[in-house]
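2024-03-11 09:14:02 DEBUG pipeline.ingest accepted 1 chain
2024-03-11 09:14:02 DEBUG pipeline.ingest length=115
2024-03-11 09:14:03 DEBUG pipeline.predict start
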Amino acid sequence: MKRIYYYYMALFGFFGLFILLMLWNTVLVPSTHLPISLVLFAVITPLLLPFKGLLNANLKSCTWMSYISLFYFTHGAAEAYNSPAEIYYALLEVFFSLLLCAGCAFYVYKAEKIT
């Protein structure tokens, strides 16, 4: 597969994960114990740290995004196990985080293999 397809896969995983987390925590199942702004800050901020570099296809940013996506994989797996009412959202989080991780990892791998 061409390297650019992995990059598109990573972007699809990123935007899917971003939109899912925004909807999940605001519209679908808002938190009753904590302010929504605090939840969004804690959940979305790690995704936004290497975002500019991901858009510019920077290899270091893609590597960090791959590492960060594993946090969301763990969170999604734990939510799927702990709350059966939200299992579909959690499984979507797992899917998008794995898509982001694999896309970034293979993009970096292909770029390093070329050089």
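2024-03-11 09:14:41 DEBUG pipeline.report Helices lie at 3-28, 36-48, 51-55, 59-82, 87-114.
2024-03-11 09:14:41 DEBUG pipeline.predict end
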